[in-house]
């Protein structure tokens, strides 16, 4: 199983660091959510973990080795990132887009092998897209499109999925549809790391929470450990009313107020 971690990681853009000295380890075969205010460095951290953004100092390590010195195809066979999506494929069919996930396994100009086709079909079936495989992306709803990107990531057949805001801009029903799908994928042994804004969704669907603020890892632990009045005050400058949901066996925020100086 691929192990993903950072050691004293700092990185950013235009020679200005957004992340500062972040050391963490992503729990294997769990769903981990990154939470924090806008601009706290969540997307920057995901990009660094997916080897899309080089560190200014420190390391991202996969199985103890600096990820930036590993073979690109080897990394792509271990880590899939949802940020690969692009509007340039809007006219392609669902099956064609999902097939892009097999690119890290292609050799030269060789076509898809039997194993590739089986994995592509599995990815479409588990995401409920097989009946839509001939439809083009631009004819699908927002929730269906999001499932296409997840299916493409699944077709990469990696051990780790990195998802940046997988439920953004979706209505409540489609948000739950995607989150339940991620739970199903996780139960099949995949490690999932995602950013998420809705705190109650983060609490309900995550095994582990990491909270960032101003580019630093402020708190981490189980939802029960992180979703306390003190931690949420430190992270978001809010005073929440947190209760424990007996149905979900997770903490739940029923209201909150802004804390002003």
Principal-axes geometry comes out as globular
Give me the secondary-structure category: alpha/beta
On the 0-100 scale, what is the average pLDDT?
92
* H-E order: EEEHEEHEHHHEHEHEEHHEE
Total number of beta strands: 12
Spatial strand arrangement across the major sheet: 6-7-8-3-9-10
Q: Any low-confidence stretches, pLDDT <50, length ≥5?
A: none
Helix content: 25-40%
Largest sheet: 6 strands, mixed
**Beta fraction:** 25-35%
Secondary structure tally, helices: 9
Radius of gyration: 19 Å
- Kindly, what is the distance between the CA atoms of the first and last residues, rounded to a whole number of angstroms? 47 Å
Plain-language structure description:
The protein has 261 residues and is of the alpha/beta class. It has a domain at 82-157. It is 31% helix and 29% strand. It has nine helices and twelve strands. The chain has helices spanning 42-49, 72-76, 94-99, 114-126, 142-155, 172-187, 199-205, 223-226, 229-236; strands at 4-13, 16-25, 31-35, 57-62, 65-66, 79-81, 160-164, 191-195, 208-213, 216-221, 238-245, 250-258. The strands form three sheets. Strands 6-7-8-3-9-10 form a six-stranded mixed β-sheet, with helices on both faces. A four-stranded antiparallel β-sheet has the order 2-1-4-5, covered by helices on one side. A two-stranded antiparallel ribbon has the order 11-12. A hairpin with a 2-residue loop joins strand 4 and strand 5. Helix 4 runs antiparallel to helix 5 and helix 5 runs parallel beside helix 6. The mean pLDDT is 92.
């Amino acid at each position: 199983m691929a192990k993903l971690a950072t050691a004293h990681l700092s990185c950013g853009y235009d020679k200005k660091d957004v992340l500062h000295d972040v050391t963490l380890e992503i729990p294997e075969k769990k769903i981990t959510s990154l939470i924090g205010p806008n601009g706290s460095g969540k997307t920057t951290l995901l990009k660094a973990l997916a080897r899309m953004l080089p560190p200014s100092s420190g390391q991202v390590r996969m199985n103890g080795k600096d990820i930036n010195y590993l073979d690109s195809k080897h990394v792509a066979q271990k880590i899939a990132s949802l940020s690969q999506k692009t509007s340039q494929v809007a006219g392609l069919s669902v099956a064609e887009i999902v097939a892009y996930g097999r690119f890290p396994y292609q050799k030269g100009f060789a076509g898809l092998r039997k194993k590739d086709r089986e994995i592509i079909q599995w990815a479409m079936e588990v995401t409920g897209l097989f009946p839509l495989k001939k439809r083009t992306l631009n004819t699908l709803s927002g929730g269906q499109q999001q499932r296409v990107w997840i299916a493409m990531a699944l077709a990469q057949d990696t051990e780790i999925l990195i998802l940046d805001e997988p439920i953004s801009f979706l209505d409540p029903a489609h948000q739950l549809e995607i989150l339940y799908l991620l739970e199903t994928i996780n139960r099949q042994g995949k490690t999932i790391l995602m950013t998420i804004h809705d705190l109650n969704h983060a609490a309900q669907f995550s095994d582990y929470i990491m909270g960032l603020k101003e580019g630093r890892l402020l708190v981490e632990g189980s939802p029960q450990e992180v979703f306390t009045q003190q931690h949420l005050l430190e992270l978001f400058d809010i005073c929440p009313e947190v209760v424990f949901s007996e149905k979900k066996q997770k903490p739940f925020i029923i209201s909150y107020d802004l804390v002003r100086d």
